[in-house]
Amino acid sequence: MQIWVQGRGPRAAALAAIIAGVVACASLTGCNSLYGEGATAGAGIAGAAVANSVTSNAAVATGIGLGAVAAAKAGVQYTQRVIHTDTQDQIASVAGPLAVGAVAPWKVVHSVPIEDDEKGRVTVSRTISSGVLDCKEIVFSVDRDATQDRAADSAFYVASVCRDGNKWKWASAEPATPRWGSLQ
What we know:
A five-stranded antiparallel beta sheet has the order 1-2-3-4-5. By secondary structure, it is of the alpha+beta class. The protein has helices at 10-26, 32-54, 58-95, 177-180; strands at 103-108, 118-129, 135-144, 153-164, 167-170.
């Protein structure tokens, strides 16, 4: 079954579906799941439209469709990594100058609402090394405010940050895996 947009064909319908998904996602905050699923579905629709216009060979059409879906998934993962890096860099920039035991608030406001804006507290639990390689172990929280449906809560994570010139950068991989998954 083909979908037509004002007599323009399946490609226009695929493009319209992708644009509608992007607009819907941009109007919501915290739409990471919608974003990921929408990109995959949009790529499937677009891939089918392109394959239909290019070939009648089912194997070639399947390859085009799978390639479009793979490209969409890679794009979603890239944008998630960028957002997670921004969050990690914000936490590191707040934690880096702190003395051991000091606590400071951190907050991230995402320019694209793929994930919720976040906030919390960060403290330095120990200095790992100093001198040429300045590194610290930190404990940070992600605090959620109370809503009508749930009580306020905090989740706590341990990570490492190191100085890179004048900036402090995230230096952990595994401690944050439960938080961000494998998309660091």
